[in-house]
Specification:
Length: 411
């Protein structure tokens, strides 16, 4: 059986309103920390943006992440951009003193509980989303693919993830509970005998979607946030024309129907006003040669389902449903695609923003989408890819050599 990998390049509540403090501020301020990363040092500086309307606010958990993704083994057919990457991390602006109310626009998820399906290491978008939600105050529950469960829990217990668990305030992200999960199977009746007998599943129980939802209900009662961060395409390296029916259906089952199943079984325990997000990729609507095995079809289905589920979950439970179309990230899982480094370099050359895409930027978008700040956004595909989705051509093509195309050549 093929392992889940998070298609992150390739492959994201109870209350509708944000509690505010009693003191009004003369203007709303948002502060961003600019972290300029170079090989030798990082510099930080504050910049303020003022908006001309009044608001009431209070201090919130600072949102930024220390995760950093580097580029490795880039395909030689593309030229790496020489640039200083600037990371814009939302951060609540401090007041004049510790006793004064802070100004700013907070993402406050204190008192909320999130279940994130698809985390098996500390290297993908799922982990980054978990960190950002935790930084905003949410309680984190994780669903991990059964064969990877023991390694993940052991690494967590032995402190191997401690460095990447560090939150903006210096504390470590806590995971309230890790649940075994195989989102390919809805209920115990769906599990084939050969899977039940597989030694990789020995010692684990209650790992189908239905059982996982029941266990979360028994342990915690309700959740507010559901995140789908998993996908699998056993024939992803094959062109679509060479993909078998079995491989195609497996990709759709694991990568898109799994979201339908998760929302179906968790919806009864999601508090009204809650939110759910998934992760998709631009291959759903554009041709990405090499992204095969039915995975592009699965992502297209996922985006279509997002709209229908937004209507049904919204009408039934007042739950919002969105998906994030994330750009390429060099995670361990994405290596299964085989050309992720080339895609990262292609994005650096051709995206409107010539900078590296950080996992935390997808995490920040997720935190916004599940927060009351996005209370009117549902059924949407949100692009977090430095704008690459907007491009109609690759400007690094020799065909454009004669044009004066601006480049970010900061040193």
């Amino acid at each position: 059986m093929c392992a889940f990998f998070y298609i992150t390049h390739s492959s994201l509540f109870s209350s509708e309103f944000l509690e505010m403090a009693a003191n009004a501020t003369p203007g709303l301020q948002i502060t961003a920390v600019k972290q300029c990363t170079s090989a030798s040092r990082r510099l930080s500086k504050l910049s303020n943006v003022n908006f001309g309307f009044e608001s009431k606010s209070r201090s919130c958990t600072e949102l930024k992440s220390s995760s950093y993704v580097s580029l490795t083994k880039l395909n030689q057919s593309y030229k790496l951009v020489s640039a200083k990457y600037e990371r814009m991390v939302p951060k609540a602006m401090s007041g004049a003193s510790d006793n004064a109310p802070a100004s700013g626009l907070p993402i406050d998820l204190r008192g909320k509980r999130a279940f994130i399906a698809g985390i098996a290491d500390d290297n993908g978008y799922g982990w980054a989303i978990a960190k950002t939600l935790a930084a905003a105050g949410a309680e984190i529950l994780v669903g991990t693919w059964v064969p990877a469960l023991n390694i993940f829990e052991t690494s967590l217990r032995r402190g191997k993830f401690d460095e990447s668990r560090v939150l903006p305030d210096g504390s470590l992200m806590e995971i309230a509970k890790v649940y075994p999960l195989d989102a390919v199977y809805d209920s115990p009746e769906d599990v084939p005998e050969d899977v039940k007998a597989n030694k990789r599943y020995a010692g684990s129980s209650n790992w189908t979607v239905k059982e996982a939802a029941e266990c979360v209900k028994q342990d915690f009662g309700t959740i507010d946030i559901l995140v789908h961060s998993l996908a699998n395409g056993p024939e992803v390296s094959k062109p679509l024309l060479e993909t078998s029916r079995k491989g195609y259906l497996a990709a759709v089952s694991a990568s898109s129907y799994s979201f339908v199943s998760l929302l179906r079984h968790f919806l009864p325990i999601i508090n009204p006003g809650g939110a759910s997000i998934s992760l998709t990729y631009i291959a759903s609507e554009r041709i990405i040669p090499g992204y095969g095995g039915g995975m592009s079809s699965a992502k297209a289905a996922l985006e279509s389902d997002t709209k229908v589920l937004a209507f049904e979950a919204g009408r039934k439970q007042k739950v919002r449903v969105n998906t994030i179309s994330a750009g390429p990230l060099g995670s361990r899982a994405a290596k299964a695609i085989g050309f992720i480094d080339m895609m990262i370099n292609y994005s650096l050359e051709n995206a409107p923003l010539q900078k590296e895409l950080y996992a935390e930027e997808v995490g920040n978008a997720a935190a916004f989408l599940v927060s009351p700040l996005a209370s009117a956004i549902t059924g949407a595909t949100i692009y977090v890819d430095n704008g690459l989705n907007a491009m109609g051509v690759g400007v690094d093509s020799p065909a454009f050599e004669g044009l004066d195309i601006p480049k970010d050549n900061k040193s």
